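To illustrate this point, what follows is a protein record of this kind.

___
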Amino acid sequence: MEKQNLLLFNISTDSKNTSLGFAISWINNFSSFYDKVDIVTLHKGDVTNLNKNINVHCEEFNNLNRVIRFIKIRRIIKDLIRENSYKFCLSHMSSALVLVAFTIPKFRSTQTIFWYTHKGPESILKKIVLNVATKVSNKIITASQNSFPIKSDKVTPIGHAIDYESFYKKQISTKSKNFIIISRISRSKNIELSIQGFLKSCYGKTNELRIIGGAITEDDILYQSILKDKYKNYPNIKFLGTIPHAELSESIKDIGFHINNTSEGFYDKSVLETMASGIINFYTNSDYDRNIHPKYIKHLKFNSTESDLSKKINIISNFDDDNLLDLIKFSQKRVSEESLSNLHERILKVI
């Protein structure tokens, strides 16, 4: 079958990025379907693991102001469009690049697929950019029914694209009672409520809670500093910082439970990845219900408060191995449907 080229926009192409390092795996997967993949990215980090038919184009901030930077990025995209023919353009989480590219007349004849999974930006400017990107994109794909913040007939939920085979771990017992939170360190993730819920549970004194993730904004950095200072005298609360995504599956192999305390609109990959690893999830967002055995939803979904979380942890602590393994197997089967291996097929169906 004749192959074609793919144009891809994203925020970061960096295997060492905890939040976005997964993109390396799925870009490699995409590249097997195309002669060439051109990536225009806002940040180029470690790309040594990319396949040879993938080219990364970037204009870093350095001393450039934002306007000049995007003018230079526009020139890169314009040159790529002039020199190549693309089957389609896929923009992953970057509404700004969709907007920049759309100002190039020749780009408009390229079908644009905008992939966005988030509650939505806070600033007015970013909201405007997202709204315009929604209008000019041909199709929009997102992870769940509630993970795209704008109502549009263009939107199709297709799930995530986790490296299921790398994370999958067959569980034969549920001996580990250690907990983990994998998340950006941000107030929106309700991390302190999760820590308090864990500490007030039956496991809060004898087991560990590890927190993997970093701070991005100035407010995040301040919040992280407050948390670290507040819990510095708790030896079982460990802030591990960022871990390269390629190393994440190994880092969580001895974990029993994961806490995700995010509201509707967030459909975090960390929940699916930990489920694939055989880790039981306590969560608040109803979007995850589909991945939980129906008879256990009421025992794992909490109302975001520390008291309800500790109550649910205490209830689960009384379940025997057979019940917990039943729950784990069901979740692993469901999240396998959101595997990287069938991502390209799911996107082509939308097109």
Remarks:
- The chain has a mean pLDDT of 92.
